[in-house]
Amino acid sequence: MTGFEVVVVGSGVVGSSIAYHLARQGRQVLVVERGRPAVEPAASWASAGGVRRQGRDPAEAKLAIESIERWPALAEELGADLGYQQGGNLYVGEGDAEAELVARFVERQHANGFADVRLLDSKEAHEVAPALSETVTAASYSPRDGQADPILTTRAFAAAAARQGAVAWHDTATLGLIVEGSRVTGVRTSRGEVRAEAVVLAAGAWTDDLALTSGLSLPIRTRVPQILISSPAPPGTLRPVLGSAGRRLSLKQLPSGEFMLGGGWPGIVSEDRRSYTMLDASIEGGWAAGVGLVPAVGEQRIVRRWCGLEAECFDHVPLIGPVTGLGGPAGLTVAVGFSGHGFAIAPAVGRAVADQLAGRPTSELAGLDPGRAARFDPAQVERFLTDHSEASLTLG
Q1: Are 54 and 47 a contacting pair, CB within 8 Å?
Q2: Nearest to 321 by CA among 302, 338, 303, 336
Q3: Is the pLDDT of residue 309 over 70?
Q4: pLDDT band with cut points at 50, 70 and 90 for residue 392
């Protein structure tokens, strides 16, 4: 039977970052992936690629700060083009009521330690982004935020992990966890059983099924957020990434000129959770939201569209760490439930999980401990797991 120090299940951006940081510590790491890194319909393939601090839960703030510090040099560190650009992030409001919401939003960003975030009036917001609709009256501006290519980034982390000595089993299904007594001691795969001192589940929307093989139920559900890509507009039409207080929208312009529109407009997941169906109402709604905020979007047409399968946590905050506090077995760590906003913090998540497995202090993960789920109301969790309204997930 094959043996490794750590088995990481899943080679999305989070799993690949964890594997990279573990391998950089000199750990013997195996990554098991059912397909390949960042392929349809996984979240790391479908991600909008926002690199933002704004809108974070306080529990994520330290990871967001660390990641934003790392992103400008991450391409050099990983030895690959990540498509990264630091164009800032604008969270905008339209009208007096939304302007008040934006002002309170800025206060929350400062409370999270994002000291450079500024409240802009209408004139200042249009100076940062002239393409904005004249209806914009206020904005929260985070100048150090930006965007990157999620597929390039995911595969760069995976390649860097391999260069550091990590072994990857692609096109290999993980069939379940091996549990002996009260401890996970390995995984069963389509290539055979693997022993491990520790197992990390970072399999995105499919993590819950794997956790169940150890008797652990996670408070996560699968959501299917939509992305729309427009025909190319003149590059530079829109520099910052946009979010909105009143519209379901994440909007950015790619370096090649296309607008990318997200925001959590839903598709429908297939029964086997391997594919999805897009909804005409979501396509029309997402496009209208973009045109309403940036009229130049309306001069283009939709040329591509897709959905991805995302794991959403009950409290919309990721579960990161050992599961013993949730009644799960020892030796098992999860990194799941990023709820549409995991891409930007993946560099820090990988570092923190590797440090935690090495027994180092990781106070930045305290608010993300899976053990907090033991305090969730079971009836509310059950309603969450069976609610298919798609009303809560945002993306960007």
Answers
A1: no
A2: 336
A3: yes
A4: low
* Tens-place pLDDT, residues 217-243: 999 999 999 999 999 999 999 999 999
Please give the angle made by the CA atoms of 206, 47 and 219, to the nearest 5 degrees: 35
- What's residue 393's pLDDT? 56
Statement: 93-142+226-307 belongs to CATH 3.30.9.10: yes
Is the model's pLDDT at 88 over the cut of 80?
yes
Q: How crowded is residue 279: how many other Cβ atoms within 10 Å of its Cβ?
A: 18
CB 368 within 8 A of CB 234: no
CA distance 135 to 270: 39
Residue written as tokens 């043996």?
Answer: 3
Q: Which residue type does 97 have?
A: A
The span from the CA of 5 to the CA of 8, in Å, is 10
According to the model, what pLDDT value does residue 396 have?
53
| HSE toward the beta carbon, residue 271, CA cutoff 13 A | 0
CATH 3.90.1300.10 fits 2-68+150-220+312-386, yes or no: no
Rounded Cα distance between 187 and 178, Å, is: 5
Please write the tens of the pLDDT for every residue from 106-135: 999 999 999 999 999 999 999 999 999 999
Predicted TM-score (pTM) of this structure:
0.96
Nearest one of 143, 126, 98 to 245, comparing CA atoms: 98
For the chain, give every domain's residue range. Answer: 2-68+150-220+312-386, 93-142+226-307
